[in-house]
Amino acid sequence: MKIEEIRNQENLDVKLHGRLDTVTAPELEKRMEGSLDGITKLRMDFQDLEYVSSAGLRVLLALSKKMNGGMVVCKVNEEVMEVFRITGFTNVLVIET
After folding, report:
1. What residue ranges define each of the domains in the chain, with the CATH number in brackets?
2. Residue by residue, what is the 3-state secondary structure of 20-49?
3. Do 56 and 26 contact (CB within 8 A), yes or no?
4. Is this structure's pTM higher than 0.85?
5. Distance of CA 35 to the CA centre of its chain
6. What is the separation of C-alpha 74 from the centre of its chain, rounded to a whole number of angstroms?
């Protein structure tokens, strides 16, 4: 998985490429720990995210809780959106279409 970050003052845009799974979820979690200081708005771009597993969902849930409503997920493809629907994450995450 490739992670791109663009910080603009207290806003952070993160674009994920590839798969968010058991192998890559810890990488995202660790990277975000060091990136969220002073951030009030986190925008996660999933246009190039091919797959998300339960390990990835756990990291997204933790990030969402940490951001206390300041996290938005956008550009979600149909495969990942189906995982969000099945798991109920459409009711947990703020998802822009």
Report:
1. 2-96 (3.30.750.24)
2. ECCCCHHHHHHHHHHHCCCCCEEEEEEEEE
3. no
4. yes
5. 13
6. 9
